[in-house]
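Q: I'm teaching a short session on how sequence maps to structure, and I want students to see two examples side by side rather than one. Could you give me a first protein with its sequence written out and its structure tokens following it? Keep the formatting plain so it prints cleanly on a handout.
A: Of course. Example one:
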Amino acid sequence: MDFNQQIIDTFRANGGEVNEPMQFGKSLVLVHVPKKDGTERVVPLASIATDGAWHVVASAAGSPSHPAWVFGLRRTETATIEVPGEPVETVTVSVTELDEPARATMWERFKAMSAGFAEYEKTAEGRAFPIFQLERRD
């Protein structure tokens, strides 16, 4: 089974808690990213929740290129995410890409959350990782 699909299935089966195949706990959200052809791609992403919003980072495991889903989020104003809870909650969110210095500040928070993020800087060839704020819409 595909690695991301395994994480998605585990997320949905366990109220948003993922400890296999990696230790994510309840730090993930599933983002439904609209694609050009009108379909959606579901992407499990590490997140930092703050006051009714979630922040996700396009680290692509330190790749020098942005992951494909970045362009989908840049093309849309709203998206759907699934967040941890009993049961997992589906939320409609507004999508905003952070500008500097807010992006740099949130990047520091991601590095504090997991040392792996700091490692990604070594292989990204200077790429600044886009960070998106996904804010709950009522």
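Q: Perfect. Now a second example for contrast.
A: Example two:
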Amino acid sequence: MTADSRAALPALVQVWGLVTVALCLAALVIDGLDYQLLALTAPLIMAEWAVARADFGTAMAAALFGMAFGAAGGGWLGDRIGRVRALALSVILFGCATMAVSRTGEIAPLAALRVLGGIGFGAAGPNALALACEWMPLRFRTYVVALLSVGTPAGGMIGAAALPALLPSLGWRGVFLSLGIAAVALGAVLVGVLRNPAHEARSAVGARSLLSAPFARLNIGVGLSFAALIAISYGLNAWMPSFLTAAGFTLEQALAASFAFNACSILGAFAAGWLARAQGSRRVMLGSAVLTAVLLVSFGVTLDAAPGARAAIDALAASVGFAASVGITTLYAMAALLYPPEVRAGGIGLGMTSGRIGGIAMSFAGGYLLDFADGSASVLFGVLAAAAIVATTAGWLVRRHIPAHGLEVS
């Protein structure tokens, strides 16, 4: 190898890293679009099949259960067969399931296909994050995590914007078929273009078990914090329109508060990439979790004391979305940087599975908590604030953290 070719290698690696990040982001965007598609087209499907909302709820929740299994299983698989293969398989799996949905006409097969697709949705995340981070220099990895963490919600937003133009010509079945074909095609591109990092094959030799003692504190800290923060995010997304309309807000006003929550969640994800590098993950996790708890208490008190204070409610919804998202994205960065390569995808997947479990639990529990308080959100906000305190676990239990302004994990 000549001196010129050796000098060109770092530049080629950087270019390849950018290509890898772009394709991993594309996989997560189409993952999010595919996942949200059933919710976006549900009114049309229920009208065509003449089914009630309660009966359709099984199909709506099915993907969440698949995602819980897929995140842990897909991460484990990525550590065994390589990130590229596992990512491509997950994209192809949910693409095939989405195509098959276009042929269904009953709830049971639809729910089964959504569980299968959910496994693919869940498996894509840990492998995309691990692969993209491993191709980028260490100093950029928190920013890469921040970028990829908004891929899935961005896909949902793209779907909401594009569907009005697509449905008149394609119908809901045509949209599912087209998106499934696009996902399978992307999976083929991933296999043909992406490569695993050179160190991955070496690190797999003598790999330690993710559940062994050296990872216990990291597993527990990240897992509990993921479960707590995702429970807050899912709980507010699922129930905010309900408790705000019960407090006297119009549906339009309630949806505006939900929009503020989600929009600022995206801003919080981007901010976390910088904060984790500037302040270190320990400070960011402790600060974001405590701030989230304080904001949730303030939200609940304001809603009870001044239910007509729309500006204050919107501001609090936006602030909670921002603070919780900073914590969630920092957890992704911790998992991507603190687990060694031989268990990295599995570690990310384990955290994501914990988050899904928390989200599913709060999605179901929220209604019971609201009913228990006769429609008041005070009990719900109390439980969510307690969950935010649980989220501090990743700050005080985990020993090694991303340091402030440093390149080496401490």
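Q: What should students look for in example two?
A: Point them to this: The chain has 14 helices and no strands. Also worth mentioning: The mean pLDDT is 86.
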